[in-house]
Write a sequence for this structure.
């Protein structure tokens, strides 16, 4: 069976994984885009979402690696979109246009059931209302021998960490202070949960840490 | 007038500047020594406290720079020693032996008055019971045109940050998870206080950030 992995998850120096007040205009919260500037600058990101060009090096290698060997994705509803509460209609299909960058089944954690959405390029969004273990079981079935990537947001990752279900986190510390937002580490004792930092890799615009249960 | 600077202040990836349960055996709290391994490895540290040898490079440059142009130090009582409450006697003279590495007047924040202690090498410990602004005024008078270095611990730095009195922080993120201990950032909105990260420098064993009010 594959591993459950968090990859390219960026926090500020002061530990925020998103800014405050997420909205349609600010999907990552106020100031949250700054967390990801290291990724936006890379060749891999620019090839997929941008205009081409972009940098190569450690930052780019990590972006690429985050998509390798993935057989399914899991993400929280706040990563899928800004809508809260019941779905008003079926219009919202994620932030990513017709051909999302996942190219696998993607399981969205939500309290509000919705029919699956088949997108171009191999991504199908499935809506899971039975909780994080149920989503993981579905993702494992879909992924087979491949790994599963757990996207954001912060509260989704915190839930999976607290349940001890994550095998590996590639955490990125971006050189920015947010001051407010969604704190990743507060009241979460990662050391007691068995996690250790096993690697530090300086990138061009941010610092990469590998966190695992040895 | 010189600046009030924090230098070489290390936190874990999860934002702890010291481990839990500080004691005579664990001056930096349980697991806290790991935060400073980047510094222990350097030539500057080994020349002062160790057996010689040690590494050169960015980590070493920052250790050196942290002692340059300093005319006074301020530190919290927990950095000075493990004793809490009234001083039982005059025996405790810091962790550093007869010749502490400060070589300037050093102002210790405490609620319990005590006579100054003149050490070898130019360090004199002064005990200040009138609070952080009073300590800063005394340090400014002592330092003249030189800078003042604010040591730890975490709660001392947090008090000076909240009061907006710190001009520059050289923060170090060490590749370790502590899980528990003294959190530097919790409920402290550095962005709102006007601080920005102006520089990131990868070191050999840790990552260095310069935080200033531009």
């Amino acid at each position: 069976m594959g591993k459950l992995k968090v990859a390219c998850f960026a926090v500020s120096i002061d530990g925020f994984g998103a800014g405050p007040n997420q909205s349609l205009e600010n999907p990552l919260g106020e100031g949250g885009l700054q967390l990801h500037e290291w990724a936006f600058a890379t060749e891999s990101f620019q090839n997929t979402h941008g205009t081409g060009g972009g940098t190569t090096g450690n930052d780019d290698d990590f972006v690429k690696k985050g998509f390798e060997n993935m057989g399914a994705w899991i993400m929280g509803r706040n990563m899928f979109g800004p809508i809260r509460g019941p779905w008003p209609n079926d219009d919202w299909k994620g932030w990513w246009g017709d051909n999302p960058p996942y190219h696998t089944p993607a399981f969205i954690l939500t309290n509000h059931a919705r029919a699956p959405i088949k997108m171009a390029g191999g991504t199908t969004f499935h809506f899971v209302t039975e909780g994080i273990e149920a989503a993981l079981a579905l993702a494992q079935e879909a992924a087979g021998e491949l790994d599963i990537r757990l996207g954001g947001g912060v509260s989704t990752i915190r839930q999976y960490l607290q349940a001890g279900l994550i095998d590996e986190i590639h955490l990125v510390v971006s050189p920015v202070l947010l001051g407010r937002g969604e704190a990743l580490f507060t009241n979460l004792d990662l050391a007691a949960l068995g996690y250790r930092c096993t690697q530090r890799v300086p990138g061009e615009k941010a610092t990469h840490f590998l966190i695992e249960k040895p």
Q: What stands out?
A: The interface with chain B takes residues 13-15, 31, 171, 173, 175-180, 183, 185-186, 188-193, 195-197, 199-200, 202, 206-207, 209, 211 of chain A (CB under 8 Å).
